[in-house]
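User: Hey, my collaborator sent me this sequence without any context and asked if I could get a structure. I don't really work with proteins. Can you help?
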Amino acid sequence: DTLFLGRDAEGPQLGDAVSEETLHFLGVPGEGEEPLPPLTPIDSFTDGEVSSVLGHELGHLKMSHVPWGVALHFGLLLGMCALGGWLTQSALVASAFSFAAPGVVPGLFVLDQVLAGPKALVFEVVQHGVTRIMEFQADRFSATISEPYRHNMRSGLVKLGKNNRALYSMPWLYEFIHLDHPTTQHRVESIDAITDGGRNGAASTMPPPAAR
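Assistant: No problem. I've predicted the 3D structure and written it out in structure-token form, which is a compact way to encode the shape of the chain:
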């Protein structure tokens, strides 16, 4: 993965592994090409914002989000295997689809054909929902380190969304089903709800980003 932190006076700040397609999309010229203007202005990150974003990533490590994510995935797979086992033994399911008797073929037919859409939807909604919770937790981990971290985390999230051409907000149902990261609006609101470094209850006085 490449974290695109924007541009400064010395040119684009890009990671090592950047494909030609990514460079073209970002407006960085290739050999013999003219630079392309980006679709939106690119904001560079301050040192404090970079530290806050890295604090967010350390929050994932501190709270063991990767092992929990792996456990969730295997739990969902185990649930699907259990459902498949029940379908292969259910006389009701077999008769409902005009099979003579329960068995592996009727069970797999129902699991892989009839329930393919609902199964994928359940996987997507559960995994995305848990991932969004983890993102909120990592945001709060970084934002509660200190008051400067909270302000830098807030402004850094806005810049990340802007630099990646992400919409500031989306309909709740679309976010609920399809997004594995919360919208910038909800992440900013979550940080604004944090008390002053978790200590004195002062609300953030930073103004919201300009509507786009």
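In plain terms: DSSP finds nine helices and two strands in the chain. You can pass these tokens on to your collaborator as they are.
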